[in-house]
C-alpha cells in the first residue's frame, strides 16, 4: 500500500468549508488521506456546519481550528484552498507541496441576510454536498 497523503484544506477562517472538507476526507478517504484543516484566520467552528455535517453522519464537533502557518514546517503533500480568499492569502509552502484551488461558496456570508433558519441551513447543506463530491473524487484526481 502506498503512503497516505497529508492534505491540508484551507479556507479564510477555518470555521466552515475547510472543516467540512476535513470531516469528509476522514469519512470517505481515510485509507488514502491524512486530512487536516487550517485558516488564514482562526474562528470557532460554525455551529451550522457542525449541524449539517452531523445530519450527513459526519461528526466535526471535536475538530479544532488551526492557523495555516502551523503547517508550513509539516510534511504536507497537498494544500487545497476551498475559497478564493484562501487562494489569494495562503502562505507559500515548500516547492514540493502541490496546491489545488477549489472555490466553494461561503455559507456564513451568503446567509447573513436570510430570514429563516431553514433558508440558511439549505445553503449550508448545498455547500456541504458540493464539498463531499469534490473530496470523494480527490484521490483519483491526485494519486498515480
Could you characterize what this model shows?
The protein has 144 residues and is of the alpha/beta class. Helices cover 40% and strands 15% of the residues. The protein is built from five helices and four strands, in the order βαβαβαβαα. The chain has helices spanning 17-28, 47-55, 84-89, 107-111, 117-142; strands at 5-11, 33-39, 78-81, 98-101. Strands 2-1-3-4 form a four-stranded parallel beta sheet. Strand 1, helix 1 (17-28) and strand 2 form a beta-alpha-beta unit.
Spatial sequence of strands, sheet with the most strands:
2-1-3-4
Largest sheet: 4 strands, parallel
Shape, per Cα inertia axes: globular
Instruction: Please report the total strand number as a whole number.
Output: 4
Overall average pLDDT: 95
Give the SSE string: EHEHEHEHH
Helical percentage: 40-55%
SSE order and pairing:
Elements: E1 5-11, H1 17-28, E2 33-39, H2 47-55, E3 78-81, H3 84-89, E4 98-101, H4 107-111, H5 117-142
Parallel strand pairs: 1-2, 1-3, 3-4
Question: Which short descriptors sum up this protein?
Answer:
4 strands, 40% helix, alpha/beta
Short description:
With 144 residues, the protein is an alpha/beta fold. It has helices at 17-28, 47-55, 84-89, 107-111, 117-142, and strands at residues 5-11, 33-39, 78-81, 98-101.
Amino acid at each position: 500500500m502506498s503512503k497516505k497523503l497529508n492534505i491540508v484544506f484551507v479556507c479564510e477562517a477555518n470555521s466552515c468549508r475547510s472543516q467540512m472538507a476535513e470531516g469528509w476526507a476522514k469519512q470517505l478517504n481515510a485509507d488514502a488521506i491524512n486530512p487536516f484543516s487550517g485558516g488564514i484566520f482562526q474562528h470557532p467552528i460554525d455551529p451550522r456546519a457542525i449541524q449539517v455535517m452531523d445530519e450527513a453522519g459526519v461528526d466535526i464537533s471535536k475538530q479544532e481550528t488551526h492557523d495555516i502557518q502551523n503547517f508550513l514546517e509539516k510534511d504536507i503533500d497537498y494544500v487545497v484552498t476551498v475559497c478564493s480568499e484562501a487562494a489569494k492569502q495562503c502562505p507559500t509552502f515548500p516547492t514540493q507541496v502541490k496546491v489545488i484551488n477549489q472555490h466553494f461558496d461561503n455559507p456564513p456570508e451568503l446567509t447573513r441576510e436570510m430570514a429563516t433558519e431553514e433558508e440558511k441551513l439549505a445553503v449550508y447543506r448545498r455547500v456541504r454536498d458540493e464539498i463531499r463530491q469534490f473530496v470523494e473524487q480527490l484521490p483519483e484526481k491526485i494519486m498515480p
